[in-house]
Amino acid sequence: MVQVDVKCFRKPFILFQWMGMNALILYALAACDLFPAALQGFYWYSPENNLVDITERFLQAVFHSKKWGTLVFVMLEILFWGLVAGFLHAKKVYVKL
Q: Fewer CB atoms near the end CB (10 Å): N or C, the chain?
């Protein structure tokens, strides 16, 4: 990317750098749905009212669209995994083959 390689404009893209440094572990954790499974453990009165469903329904109501609300929820999940990657980078933990 020109902004990163030529102009050295790295700050907005640092999240992607961290995710690339631990891509294998992030893929494995995200593929097994660890984040939604942890959030589904917290619910209000019945398991159908868990944090994942409530958050997704809230975002769908805010954006007045099921597709856009789901997209924003997925982007928040990607942001979460990026922050996990940043934490792993801060602790100098790198998983590689």
A: C
Structure tokens at 61: 């109501």
Task: Report the 10 Å Cβ neighbour count for 8.
Answer: 8
Quick check: 62 pLDDT over 90?
A: yes
pTM for the model: 0.77
Q: Are 19 and 82 in contact (CB under 8 A)?
A: yes
Domain ranges of the chain: 9-45+61-91
| Residue whose tokens read 């995994």 | 81
Instruction: List the structure tokens of 57.
Output: 């329904």
Contacts (Cβ under 8 Å, ≥6 apart) of 95: 22, 24, 25
